[in-house]
């Protein structure tokens, strides 16, 4: 008489232990499937959202920044662009003087300066940049509005690099010039020294030469550090990643009485109103590689350790080391959910629970086999949406784009891998996920049945099992399940050692399906369910496998 092997529901990937010790519904491997409701469905794709693309001349897109329900920014190697999700403004709002490398880690923070919402962007290769999200979206060097002297260029001698000013500088301004070490000419910082009251000498020949009529502004009180890690915390802007001070964490003044987050200098009347900084750790061999704002603290990631800053004002600030670790991570690769940060490493997904760092799922690396194939997590992007954590990574050995996404379902505690496309960046705003790839178009992820017209290849494979009957020879007869999506093709493969049985079925209606397994003999087997030509099927309520068993002779 035949027996039944039952898989009651479909779950995610689990590779950390023998399948006999796991739920029958776990997969040894899977791609582009959705098991969040216990059924097995081919995952959705992504559809084009923007009607136009960022120009290819802008270089690779490094970061997309969802500002609000109407505005999104894109930071490319050459420029910053503004869009409305549906349309990119093809005139950049800011252009970098030097092309950023594709490995550049871009940080950003959403804040407010006076009554204007701003986005502060850090590249690590330039000064901080602020995007003013007013009626007209503009971008300029962070610290604009703090100028104490303003004039224009009346002449420029490229041979001597002398700039002649339209107005003379007072002695106080000349002294301030020495402190600031340069001026802003047409919005770009130029290292320079004072020669006379009306002339300054540039220290290097600029790629874009000053022109007659260009604005000349001297700023006071803002940070000129080339930071790329920024966040807001308790009303202040924090920044790190300064290549000249790799262990330094900066903070701005507290806004009020004319002060804004653009002010970074000390205020003699009160340390708690002042801007300032602290050196985190004691070695340049262990630089800050990311910061993360939590409700009561800032987590400071260094190359070989983790620190935190807590306290609600500078006089109460305390910095302490909370963990030592030996794996790099990406600043953009940290996702925060319910005040717990998660990030991807070559050892698995890690978290900080407020006391120590640990692997997700109690120290178990459920994706150990897949993670062994990852080439790099250095450009990983992470975010949370719809109760899930998303981590991008690169499995392919060539190229500069990530090509895979690890999805962790926080409700069900299950894993899935999505692949088959290029990822410049991914992010989420109000549970809508956005993707930008190598085309320059913006896409909405988890929507539609294709990857922008390309078929999705999907499969789900069970853990190898002996049905807990190690000494029993089995004959696999049929597999039963209920499937939907008329016209889709389901491929069933049975693996038994070196042998394989393959059955193909076109779904004719939303009904029970039985696929023969040809009395395949086995001691231990695995089955694989996959689609064909991008078809989108759903299998409801698990599967049942009919088999006959016979005890082996002793």
Verbal overview:
The protein has 554 residues and is an all-beta fold. Among the domains are: 3-26 and 34-43 and 457-551, Jelly Rolls; 147-219, Beta Barrel (Thrombin, subunit H), CATH 2.40.10. 3% of the residues lie in helices and 48% in strands. The chain has two helices and 45 strands. The strands form ten sheets. Strands 1, 3, 4, 40, 43 and 45 form a six-stranded antiparallel β-sheet that branches. Strand 11 (116-122) and strand 12 (129-133) form a beta hairpin. The protein starts with a strand and ends with a strand. The mean pLDDT is 91.
Descriptive labels:
554 residues, mainly beta, Jelly Rolls, Thrombin, subunit H, six-stranded antiparallel sheet, six-stranded antiparallel β-barrel, 2 helices, 45 strands, 3% helix
Which consecutive residue ranges, at least 5 long each, have pLDDT under 50? none
Beta-strand content: over 45%
Write down the overall mean pLDDT: 91
The number of helices is 2
CATH topology group of the domain at 3-26 and 34-43 and 457-551: Jelly Rolls
**CATH domain class name of the domain at 3-26 and 34-43 and 457-551:** Mainly Beta
What oligomeric state do these chains adopt?
A: single chain
What's the N-to-C terminus distance?
A: 22 Å
Radius of gyration: 29 Å
